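Example record used in the benchmark description.
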Amino acid sequence: MDLDPEIAEAVRRFPPIDLADLAAARTSFAASGGPTPPPEWSDDVTVTDRTLPGPSSGTRVPVRVYTPRRDDDPKPAIVRFHGGSFVIGDLETDHLDCGSWARDIGAVVVDVDYRLAPEAPFPAGVEDCFAALTWVAAHAAELGADPARIAVAGSSAGGGLAAAVALMARDRGGPALALQVLNYPALDDRLDTPSMRAFTDTPIFSARHAELAWRYYLGERDGDVPAHAAPARAADLTGLPPAFLLGCDFDPLRDEGLRYAARLLDAGVPVELHQYPGTVHGFDVMPARISAEARRVQVAAIRRHLRPPAPARIPARERP
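Model output (structure tokens):
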């Protein structure tokens, strides 16, 4: 693999995670974060943990709300779902990124601690995500957010969940979405793309990881996989919100993201796609110049998509 040199160095420092031993994988993932100093955005963003009503009676969904300290209400809102192969992760996974987005985009960011597989296989996690979106839309005024400027976003499994939630919002008659942000999303349980067949031992995430992730997430399903679980199975992609997709070069998920982008375009959905050479799955959080550039481009794109509509221009009255 011809990796970007800074990405290659970051990969060498990343501890391997074996999803076959899920308990060990979770422990290793949690330990990889380690203690961190207060984030650079801490003076610019307020952070609040709360628990929302879940998708069914007796269920609750923990979320973390990041609100920029800016007097420009209503702000756009972004409902974000962390990655982790559907089986790993929590509200700490994307903590630094969520605060950065709140500050740099000027948006209320709601990070969702959805239920994980295999303890809670599909549809538990995605229904938690949809419940959070529904709550945000219904309580936009309370959050200081604009219900007409709501996005969903996620990386890897979280990107797949974001795509699924966009489909659910369309199929269930709302909430309306202004944007879906899909970073190297997990979209297709069939594992039959060229990149999935080629990248069986790539660092960070391989085809073996993908196989185990889908097995955990789908549970006992055998071929009967709905589009709300694997969005690539959706027969109809019309009526979906504009999409921003970020892709990695040496990633088994690469081609399903490219195929989904092409199908969205064919369905009349505006798509902005950025594919970065010499990168691996999850590269955007690594300490590398190409990663910083990818983050900069993404933030600018989200700001552009979620900016408020320009005020109507009223022609000046002609002088008599």
